[in-house]
Amino acid sequence: MNVAQRLLAKEWSALAAAILAGFVVLSLLSPEFLTEFNLYVMLRSFCVVLVVAFAQMLALGVGQLNLSIGALGGLVAIAAGGVMDKLGFPIALAVGLGLLIGAAGGLANGLLTVRTGINGFIITLATASVFTGVNLGVTESIPFYNLPAAFVAFGTERFFAIPYLLAPPIAVGAALAFFLARTVPGRYLLAVGGNPQAAELSGLPRDRMIVLAHVLSGLLAAVGAILAVAQLGSAQPTIGADWLIISFAAPIIGGAALTGGHISVAATSLAVVLIVLIQNGMVLAKVDPYWVQFLLGALILVAVGLNRLRALHARSE
Amino acid sequence: MRFVVENAGKSFPGVVALDGVSLDIRPGEVHALVGENGAGKSTLIKIITGLYRPDEGLLSIDGKEVRFASPRDAIAAGVSAVHQERNLIPRFSVGENIMIERLPARGGLVDYASVHAEARRFLDMIDPSMDTRTEVRRLSVAQMQIVEIAKALSLEAGLLLLDEPTASISGHEAEALFAVLRRLKAEGKAIVFVSHKLDEVIALSDRVTVLRDGKTAVAGDPIAAVSRSRMVSAMIGRDEPVANLGVRKTLRDDAVLEVIGIATTLGHRDLSFTLNKGEILGLYGLVGAGRTELARTLIGDAKVTAGKLRLNGAPVSIRSVSQALRKFRIGYISEDRKGEGLILAHPVRSNVAITVWRRVLNRLGLLLRRRESEIAGPLARKLEIKTPSLEQTVGKLSGGNQQKVSIAKWLAVEVKILIVDEPTVGVDIKTKSAIHELIAEITRGDVSVLLISSDMPEMIALADRILVMRDFLIVGELENNRHYEPMSRRIMNLIHGDFAGKGSDAEWETTSG
Amino acid sequence: MTNAEVRADRPGPQAWLVEQSNLLGLAAIIVLLWMAFTARAPGFVTPFNLFAISRSVAIDIVIGYSTMVVLATGGMNLAIGSIGVCSVMLAGYLMQKLGLPVPLAFAAGLALGALLGFANGTAIVRSGVNSFIITLASASLFMGGMLILTKAAIYNGVPPAIAAFGRMRWGFISPLLLIALATGAALLILFRFTALGREILASGANARAAELSGVPVGRVVVTVHTLSGLLAAGAGLMLMTRLGAAMPSIGEDWLLPSFVAPVLGGTLLAGGFVSIIGTILGALLVATIRSGLLIVQVGNFWLQLFLGLILLFAVMVDRYRGVYAERRGLGRSS
């Protein structure tokens, strides 16, 4: 197959086409679309959403659902922000603490899921509440505003249209793609998701992989939270409150199967691009922001419907 | 390696799967394991590969006793197996699937060059044309089986166990497989070969063990000393008498169901037969012959894509299970009693009444438990279902009683055609005869029964006529004179394909894709 | 050897106690909490606080039922909050902007809830896709649609009779509680005394076996989702009487309590078994803690934490009980 054929065969080619079409339409309809500032704005919203999508993507990869990504993110946000604001921690230490909390939260989720054998959905629903509870209890809904200038600067500065904030998510995405494609634990993770019984029969450590997926999911939620704090310039306890649907929308639109084993960094990234594009388009068109929520739901349904059609078509061949 | 199973015993609730079975697998030999479905082969294999632990008896490798806590232990000890079911990761490449148990890696990173090179090495032994980079989900069933075989070979184990390895492959690939097995044998490996294809068994193996009803019928005799007919006799010979069902009268000219040249979404093509009123029509065949699939089509769970169906002379189209039951009065007792036939968590009362819930409402449109009990009670008594009460959870009953419950629910709704799929698997002997008598008795009330069974004595005891199926086709139809020896022989010959005197694998035409 | 008589009666008192041990345990915890809260703050048992609790528990009960009926088939409904708020906003709009009488507007709200539920159920059955994804997406879809249409208005110009009803008090009980209990009674009749109820539980316990026994599983799933939507709408309308207005924030925080109440009460996540009384007790526990924390002035902030921990605890206990009951050879019946 030549390059063109191979590209077309990729499942995300429909997505890429949609994005291209969207770009064309928006640049024709709105003179502000292709301005440096607008691209900068789009890329900034892209940052947090991408990492959050990756967090859920990993859980989906092993056939798990993680409802606590937003809540954990909120907790990390106020923890990192809080220690910088109230305890004067240096940035590196605060970030380190945040990541540690994310990993610990993920570890708790993973261990509870495999040890009790209970559906990850209910476990993470419960832990989400716990995380939010701690968050609200500690902050009493009051954000931390007093953050180191360098940190806030990182969140706003840019190189032409490219925000500095974009560097971490891109790095994370590349690392994740590499992890899943080229490392042994990454391949094992996908194997466990792709066919749990076969993986077990082949002696792969299924429980350990599920815990690993949850830990990584929590870690990524933490990264997303820290980026969000930098983006907003303050540690808001409400960070993560609206992450739930976005975290599922992107991987699902990108073709992830709820049953596990099939996730793609590239497809998920493209899905995030599409979502950000739609959001941006709404803003430019001065459309009610509520349309985004509506469209997200519709987009998920369409994506899922198309996936099903494709699966049915493949089976009948 | 020399792998010895000594006096293995394994029981499950209600049934003894293995009883005092021994198997002596020697290095440098191909040891065949044969037997009917339910003989215990699969249980024995699961014990050898570490999936089950034996209740009695022991396993030893080269004289030293071993205990496997999981499949991983067995693999580590040098036992590698190709199972009947596929165990591949759909989105991984052929190469990765073959090497999945020990991916070549350097510093935590997968060494793909090695993966494909190594995989290539083993794949070449059977199918040099397959690309190791193809995703497994794009392969045909036959190709997937080849990958599994290569995977088992790659473990370079001391004992290689193959469970129906030629179920989906034939011709060149099967020949290639046999060549590989002969070479491994020459290298001193021990090989266990499970197959229904007796000609392959005779051609390939050095010694053969025949299992029957969980016991050893032929214990590792050299193949030269076991003729084909002796093998068949050992598989089917029985001690216990066949149930006496008295004189059976059936009206042969009253066709209740006519199947004319149908094709189905499940793979049948041009299938035809007739079921007469009050008759027990048997459908005999091996696993994978297409019998359950036929049953599923007749109850509306799968679609007919060509041909005609007629019920009592009138053409019909069965669109759903609900319609099959309510409009056409066709019922189905599934072979998967626990998964499909019963709701284990619910009580006997509701499991029996489920088919008639909508019919026993009172004037207010309410369904009272008392009404359910009024239906379930008499049936439970009639079928002699042993349960402390109708409220007992069905999951707690023995296999035999569970099966009676799943029969009872069809009696409750007064079906006209009942398709019975493997009615006595995992059922104790006494309940087994009771169920046989029950099946015979309901046909006296003008219910017509389509009996699917892999149990030869059961089939010969019950059926008035027997259809033999293979590869989704009907290969023969026999009037049953109820004499065990001649009937079983004729059936076995139809199954094991000595039709038209063709002897070797390569000459057979397989009709599967 | 034949059974002379197969008894149709219920299992003996000992088995019954074990079966109900979950509910008894739950009731015991509730009693303990009440005692603890009252000891710390005597204001807990004042008629007014009891009234407040009764109002809040009534709504939690109906929310719990909305999820419970879907859990019965082994599915879930993440859109209950969205359906609730859509129904309320429709009713509010009809009353405030179109001047429709209260009963008509409420009926319209309920009808909308049922309709949205029906849409969910149909999408799930037709597409064969997991109820999690479908209802996650539809939650967003419905909510977004509602916000677009209403521009997030707050309808507080609704007839004062509504707020008056919300304030009505019979001693220390709100009539809302009676509505909730009546709903419970109706559901009890459904699950215990109707063919549909049996079919729902059968579909949840083993959809394949139910299907092969002639139960129209697809239709059953659509029905439970419709019912779930109806109940969500009901809960929303009940909340409206308490708030005295229709506001878009309704339903935001329903997800967790909607699961906690049934699961604590013994309804199985996997389907096939529901406990109507259990859901009431579960809701009561949630309402007790919410009110208690408020009274003791610990702050509503810690409520989430407690709820999460309780849910974890409940799920683990349920697991343990399942294993324990298996070992003791005692069964559960529906």
Helical content class of chain C? over 70%
Helix proportion of chain A: over 70%
Tell me the overall shape of chain C: globular
Tally of domains of chain A: 1
Low-confidence segments of chain A: none
The biggest beta sheet of chain A reads: 2 strands, antiparallel
Number of helices, counting only DSSP H or I runs of 4 residues or more of chain A: 14
Question: Would you mind describing this structure in some detail?
Answer:
The complex is a heterotrimer of chains A (317), B (513) and C (334). Chain A is an all-alpha fold and 317 residues long. Chain A has one domain (37-305): ABC transporter involved in vitamin B12 uptake, BtuC (Orthogonal Bundle), CATH 1.10.3470.10. Helix content of chain A is 75%, strand content 1%. Chain A is globular. Chain A has helices at residues 3-9, 13-29, 36-61, 69-85, 91-116, 120-139, 149-156, 167-182, 184-194, 196-201, 206-232, 243-253, 265-284, 290-316; strands at 158-159, 162-163. In chain B, helix 4 (112-123) crosses helix 5, helix 13 packs across helix 14 (399-412) and helix 14 packs parallel to helix 15 (429-444). With 513 residues, chain B is an alpha/beta fold. Chain B folds into three domains: 3-236, Rossmann fold (3-Layer(aba) Sandwich); 242-329 and 415-513, 3-Layer(aba) Sandwich (Rossmann fold), CATH 3.40.50; 347-413, no CATH class. By secondary structure, chain C is mainly α. Chain C has 14 helices and no strands. Chains A and C meet through helix 6, helix 12 and helix 14 of A and helix 6, helix 12 and helix 14 of C.
